[in-house]
Amino acid sequence: MSILPPDQYLALVVQATIGCSWNKCTFCGLYRDRQFRVRGVDEFRAHCTAVRDYFGAGLSLRRGIFLADANALTVPQARLLELVQAAQAVFQRGATSHPLFSFISAFDAQRKQPADWAVLRDLGLSRVYIGLESGDDELLQFVQKPGDAAAAVDAVTDIKAGGIGVGVIAMVGLGGDRFAAQHVANTVRTISAMPLDSADVIYLSAYRPAPHTEYPQQVQDAGITPLTPEQEKTQQRALQDALRTRFPQVRVAPYHVSGFAL
Q1: DSSP secondary-structure letter at 166?
Q2: pLDDT at residue 176, as a whole number
Q3: pLDDT of 261 above 60
Q4: Quick check: 62 and 55 in contact, CB under 8 A?
Q5: Which residues contact 96 (CB under 8 A, 6 or more apart)?
Q6: Coil, strand, or helix at residue 254?
Q7: 83 Cβ neighbours under 8 A, 6+ residues apart
């Protein structure tokens, strides 16, 4: 598993998909070593069974199920329901469903309606994590992130309407000095437009260079200066303070990615 949200480190990870369906963001190297594919239902069921047998009694220490990889929820709804049902059946504990968690991009989330999310909620989906990265459309285009800020707001609105919590992830330092002011202002504006409540979380993740990615050269060619550690801390505080003021009931926390295989 390339990466998990901080509150999912004790989840049981099962791979409904392999890789990332987009895999073109210039700053991200997490999935460059694999081609995206969706597991067949029988293959996924066998995978879940193997995971269950491997962990044995240790399953009792796990808190819910995380559907990997990068944006597993992009799978078309009919297939996704089969995959979710297979996981719940394999890891069944009496009549209680396990809470489920997963990533999806805002661009892919637009393919599902609130009614689709409500069906997934009834099957145990508890929280969906969206890598917003920035609320600034110019910066999103610069790093080749699909979709735009408005799409992210719409995606979160639909997911929340389906009764599911969200985890919104924004990056600190992305875009360096050139984008710094608009990145903060528009990220705060975008997240502030989302209907977040106490079931949700906002993560602030500092950019860290990843091997074999385009972003470092892209920044150099554009004459952009990366933020210093002190500037990075200042930007994180600005985002954190503004978002905590807007959403006093929502947890705003750091997301350290340096321990993952970037």
Answers
A1: E
A2: 98
A3: no
A4: yes
A5: none
A6: strand
A7: 16, 39, 41, 44, 67, 75
Bridge partners (DSSP) of residue 66 are 13, 101
Beta strand segments in 159-232, E: 165-172, 201-206
Structure tokens at 184: 């903060």
Residues 187, 193, 198, 200: is their CA dihedral positive or negative?
Answer: negative
CB of 142 closer than 8 Å to CB of 183 = no
Residues 92, 45: Cα–Cα separation, whole Å: 13
Integer Cα distance of 262 and 258 in angstroms:
7
Dig out the tokens for 192 from the structure.
Answer: 């502030």
Quote the CA–CA distance of 172 and 254 in Å, as a whole number: 10
| Eight-class DSSP state of 60 | G
| Structure-block tokens of residue 148 | 């735009």
- Cβ pair 166, 158 in contact under 8 A: no
Q: Helix or strand or coil: residue 68?
A: strand
Rounded Cα gap, residues 243 and 188, in angstroms: 6
Alpha-carbon gap, residue 168 to 158, rounded angstroms:
14
Q: What pTM, to 2 d.p., does this model score?
A: 0.94
pLDDT digits (tens, 9 = 90+) for 226-255: 999 999 999 999 999 999 999 999 999 999
The residue type of 117 is W
